[in-house]
Design the sequence.
């Protein structure tokens, strides 16, 4: 793929300043630009780079005023960052535009495969599975019996979806994410543990992203539910019967225990642990590495610590934690002073 | 699968109250019941739902006395929860009753495959591997050379077992669990690290469950050992030469460093970290997110914190941690009072 | 494989003491030795075992003086531990000496495959991928388009490398490690999150080891970089645009957020969390379960805690944390004493 500055400008509704036939074939950061690369300048703190960049073409805001000579050809647009993000996405769509069914895939005769679908080699499509139009099933993906994959959803290599789970439209599941493994349920019985069969499923609604190696267990009965627009990073654990509300975002390595219900629009940091059978209100924010041991009922509350409490209180408390040696010293001094005083007064 | 209330009652040794030919084809929670579903009522706090449920058939305890009219057909049994769990398990066994060898699997000619075995497509069975009767090897599973899989053990899609590892009978390994990868052993040598070859294996005894994306490393020499009845949740790290005692249960995302020996009947919460080369006594309980930095020699001890100590002490201490601003205020007041006193007395 | 004591001695440049034709066919720890096994004795605390071991041959230091009769044949060498490690490695190399291309693999016609390469069944080699001489691609590995795998690098079963990523020479990637999944980048827009396309890649230099289920995300733009000699344990999260310096070692389940730069020769414990957009100096050590919330600019600093600070200060502070109930008691006593004093003086 090679484009001229003029072609890029036309795509973005911009205007060219410099050589309209300057050619670019890849995208780069402005500070790492090289001949043939296309960059952008949005954040003012990167302005100095525009005078030294080797990128052939740079997208800038219409309002940008250069105070030194610029070698690169400029494409001026209303919003340089948004325009560049749009190009990134177009680039990605072209790069990942896989279609057709590769040899060496296993598709059950009872499965239903839609139009414009990609199914890679060594992918396994179970009985009665449904793959809707435009879905991309990369090599080595596993779809158990009765699984449904929505329109334009992509499962990268090695993603696994156990039987009966349902994935919505426009979702992305990264490699080795595991959807629908058995919930961790055992009934103790005279020193040993008997497995409680897990016959529910996982429902993932539209526009959800699931990171690499993230595990979402099936419900014991009913469904583990990931609502529309949720974004989960890598290596996250979601236990059986959990529900995560719309547009909640969770960073890597966080774990959520069974039957907990998380509200919508929450932001949860990395390595957070959340116990089972509690409820987190909408819009709650949890700092990384926190532990949530009980329900949070105030929408929008921000917490930290393990167990977590209000983040401002936590920060104030942690300052004093660090000052504990000083506090202890003061107590010792007080004891001494008082002992002296007592001798004085008696 | 469709059953009548009478058939269910006969399976469970119960008695029917209502329409014996009421038909059900799936299981549901009582509060989510719908026509054609079978539910159960065991916990008294769910009693109100029995008057409104749309489930066609509900399993209840013989002792249950209804105080309002019930629409559903009832099946009365001695223990409604146990009966329902039994049905869950039967359901699961039928659902997952896979047998035979699918095309596109790779089975070394030197491997030994028992009776009534399932081997899915794209599964890889290495040289001299042994798969005993009734084992289920789902698609895309990897068994290295000389691996042994016990009777009736199930490996779900994409589970990996490196060469020379041995898995017992009636185990379940979930997707993308990795058994027998190299232990993390490196010998420092003038600024770089030389790998120490890891030639031991992993031994998993009978009745063990291993969660999705859990990793158990092979021993440097000898064996990493997971004893009978151990249950490991998802995303757990077990390092080389660790031993985990019988019927110990460990929640998700916990990590155990090399050569540590954990007793039997322990319960370890999620996201716990345990250092290497220590011993944990039988029956110890560890609260989630704790860090264990040294051996625990008292059987049954319960600990929390990082580093962890007795859980009651920890809880008391954490209350004071939260009160640190208040404690500091008291110290400041004391200092002031004493300063005043000194002026008074001098 | 069977060797005599004499053959082993010749390989290691040692001298035999006992029966030179004693035969061994496997390696064991000295305390677990059995007839036919070869052990070693290096650590003095294991000396008692040499008088009781059932191992047929034991490698010992030339300087070792036995004070009791020894049944095993001894092979005396300059450095018993180093010699044994060398044997371990030879053993491993023989065990894992796979070559050739197994049936049922998918190799794009445009891929370039070097000499002496192993490609296992169900491995997927994308378009224009390059596999250099001596590389081992185990079954079910996925290499996306344009991926490069360096000389003598091994990817164990199920490792995944997304398109455009580059892996150096002499690396080891364990099962289900995921290299190059999308970074976790979303732009908020009126309540929902729009994905920011991630079009960079991951570059892994030579001599790197990557543990099972570890995830390294591709850069948004540019590269996520793992420098020469880095060792990463299992279940680690490395976010987009991170850079990890030469010979840094990181234990299991640690997570590093986006754009952070870690120096060389660092040692980072397990379950550590490191926020994004910071810099860690060379040679820094971080205790397990710590949280790094801001840059560390002092080379060689050792830290602990969440948020972390100097490890000695942390340990001193944590001792006082445990003594908080005692400190509170002292404060209460002080308050009482002062109250009494005031009454006395007024």
Sequence:
């Amino acid at each position: 793929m090679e484009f001229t500055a003029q072609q890029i400008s036309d795509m973005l509704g911009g205007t060219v300043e410099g050589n309209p036939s300057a050619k670019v074939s890849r995208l780069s950061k402005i500070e790492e630009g090289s001949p043939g690369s296309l960059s952008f300048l949005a954040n003012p703190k990167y302005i100095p780079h525009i005078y030294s960049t080797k990128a052939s073409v740079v997208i800038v805001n219409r309002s940008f005023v250069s105070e030194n000579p610029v070698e690169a050809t400029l494409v001026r647009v209303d919003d340089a960052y948004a325009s560049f993000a749009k190009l990134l996405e177009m680039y990605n769509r072209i790069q990942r535009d896989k279609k057709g069914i590769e040899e060496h895939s296993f598709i059950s005769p009872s499965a239903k495969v839609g139009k414009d679908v990609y199914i890679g080699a060594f992918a396994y499509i179970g009985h009665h599975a449904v793959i809707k139009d435009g879905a991309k099933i990369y090599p080595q993906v596993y779809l158990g019996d009765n699984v449904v994959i929505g329109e334009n959803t992509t499962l990268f290599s090695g993603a696994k979806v156990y039987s009966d789970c349902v994935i919505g439209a426009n979702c992305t599941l990264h490699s080795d994410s595991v959807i629908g493994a058995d919930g961790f349920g055992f009934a103790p019985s005279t020193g040993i543990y008997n497995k409680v069969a897990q016959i529910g499923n996982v429902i993932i609604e539209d526009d959800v992203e699931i990171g690499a190696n993230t595990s979402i267990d099936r419900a014991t009965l009913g469904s583990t539910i990931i609502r529309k627009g949720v974004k989960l990073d890598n290596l996250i654990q979601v236990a059986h019967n959990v529900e995560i509300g719309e547009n909640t975002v969770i960073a890597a390595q966080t774990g959520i225990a069974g039957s907990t219900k998380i509200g919508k629009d929450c932001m949860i940091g990395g390595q957070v642990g959340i116990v089972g059978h509690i409820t987190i209100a909408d819009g709650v924010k949890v700092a990384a590495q926190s532990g949530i041991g009980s329900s949070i009922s105030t929408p929008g509350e921000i917490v930290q610590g393990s167990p977590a409490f209000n983040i401002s209180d936590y920060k104030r408390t942690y300052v004093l934690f660090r000052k504990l040696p000083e506090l202890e010293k003061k107590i010792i001094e007080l004891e001494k002073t008082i002992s002296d005083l007592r001798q004085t007064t008696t």
In short: Chain C has a mean pLDDT of 95. Residues 324-345 of chain C form the longest helix (22 residues). Chain C touches chain B through 61 residues (CB under 8 Å).
